[in-house]
């Protein structure tokens, strides 16, 4: 995933699965490994942020229902 392209959550999970498959099959060299691990780390951070945002939005909506 490049920094210029924005992936949605589903695309991010698909990309993580491709990276994982590549790592499991021991494809590529050490330089590619580091690049892939860095990319996966960035994707995970982005997805975690999206999940937290959605969790907050849902919590706010449920709070509105209770009031």
From TrEMBL:
Gene Ontology cellular component annotations, sorted alphabetically: exodeoxyribonuclease VII complex
Keyword terms, alphabetized: Coiled coil, Cytoplasm, Exonuclease, Hydrolase, Nuclease
Keyword Cell membrane: no
InterPro entries: Exonuc_VII_S, Exonuc_VII_ssu_sf
The protein's Enzyme Commission number: 3.1.11.6
GO biological process, one term: DNA catabolic process
Domain of life: Bacteria
GO molecular function: exodeoxyribonuclease VII activity
Gene3D superfamilies: Exonuclease VII, small subunit
Transmembrane segments: none
Annotated family: Belongs to the XseB family.
Name recorded for this polypeptide: Exodeoxyribonuclease VII small subunit
The organism's taxonomic lineage, starting at the top: Bacteria, Pseudomonadati, Bacteroidota, Cytophagia, Cytophagales
């Amino acid at each position: 995933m490049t920094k210029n392209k924005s992936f949605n959550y589903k695309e991010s999970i698909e990309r993580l699965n491709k990276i994982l498959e590549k790592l499991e099959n021991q494809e590529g060299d050490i330089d590619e490994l580091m690049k892939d691990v860095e990319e996966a780390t960035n994707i995970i951070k982005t997805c975690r942020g999206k999940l937290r945002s959605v969790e907050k939005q849902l919590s706010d909506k449920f709070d509105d229902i209770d009031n």
